[in-house]
């Protein structure tokens, strides 16, 4: 049997690029799918034969039988959410037995971290998903975090919780004036899952590294997007993990050289949920047209929070930045069909900043807020591209749009998605060049 490649699939914008669709598609060539960062803040939608499933913490590879799915050490896990997801999958007939494993090193979201987030968002709004992500990672960095392994192995787990509880109680109550959950409530939030969790906790480090070597194909499932990366995104309007290639190395404990291909996922336009600068954001009416009303499952409303997504044109400066920090080899372009019927399509290729034209992403949001996008305006198409499966069948202007992006970022587009379903995809063989 020929060796299958190990791949990373990463979002290149501010999340919701359609990663799940691409991961589900490429999951066919992988034996193992690994989440390495983030947690229930992610909303990953897969459509299989028009049936929609949204996953938050479980890798989308779970939708293909025989794949092993890993929740890696770099994740921040919310147990009630995770077990709801497990129940939802089991109810829809998916067998999870011996296929889903969790790293003992992953951190736990608790009612304390969720409460801290509520407090912080009231004074310093980022527009988070309120899933406890930021404070769970900050507890990790402060070394007061609680881990999956502690819950299942440490007989004194309650003492660890009490330590975290006593540190935060006075601040939450006295400074923020919020009600603190009782210690028992905090302990129960995770403790009731202890026995079920024991069966899922495995030394994922070895499982993943063995799989990387044995040639059966490992796929790393990125969550969020590169512009939400804590180091390389639009700080402070970011999430609290490394969503980029480096996050795989630390979050799954692997040798980066074993990853054969990094695929960056990019939509034909840009969306963002939450606050923060967004240079190519559209005026409200134009945004409403592209967002949709929410009637269709693919309309641009948050898969986790239901919030309407902010909409903008594709931003080549963002794209080039994300390609660099991830070492992207090739692109997957999603939502081609969403542009059908637009008279013209804009693509930002550089910014006008401080009297200069640049295509480098500035490091601060102060500079980014001042950046004025410079656009190339391309002609649109009136034809319907939904469901097209070959490049040559795309309208000429749609083909030119694909070629324009490839030329702008100097990377091949190997997949074009023309609808949310698995089958609605064009695979581009680059020998055509
Ligand atoms: P993710 O977080 O990157 O996995 O993306 P989301 O699941 O949050 O949002 C992407 C949405 O776009 C989902 O509703 C997908 O079903 C949908 N989608 C993905 N690719 C396409 C496409 O090519 N066309 C259309 N119309 N919808 C798509
Ligand atoms: P997927 O994997 C889009 C955004 C939030 C907020 C910021 C910080 O579906 O692409 P957090 O709760 O992480 O502390 O919020 O990050 N955000 C996402 N936006 N898609 C996501 O995940 C996101 N996960 C977090 O809206 O702006
Ligand atoms: Mg999403």
Mean pLDDT: 96
Strand content: 15-25%
Query: What's the helical proportion of residues?
Result: 25-40%
Question: Number of DSSP helices?
Answer: 14
- Rg from alpha-carbon coordinates: 22 Å
Which molecules are bound besides the chains?
Answer: guanosine-5'-diphosphate, 6-O-phosphoryl inosine monophosphate, magnesium ion
Beta-strand segment tally: 19
The structure class reads alpha/beta
Q: Main beta sheet: strand number and arrangement?
A: 9 strands, mixed
Uncertain ranges: none
Biggest β-sheet: strands ordered side by side in the sheet: 8-6-2-10-1-11-14-18-19
How far from one another are the termini? 30 Å
Shape: globular
Summarize the structure in words.
- The chain is of the alpha/beta class and 433 residues long.
- The chain is 33% helix and 20% strand.
- The protein has 14 helices and 19 strands.
- The strands form four sheets. It has a nine-stranded mixed sheet, sandwiched between helices.
- The longest helix has 19 residues, at 157-175.
- It starts with 6 loop residues before the first strand and ends in a 6-residue tail after the last strand.
- The model has no long low-confidence stretch (mean pLDDT 96).
- 6-O-phosphoryl inosine monophosphate is lined by residues 11, 14-16, 41-44, 126-129, 131, 133-134, 223-225, 228, 239-240, 273-274, 303.
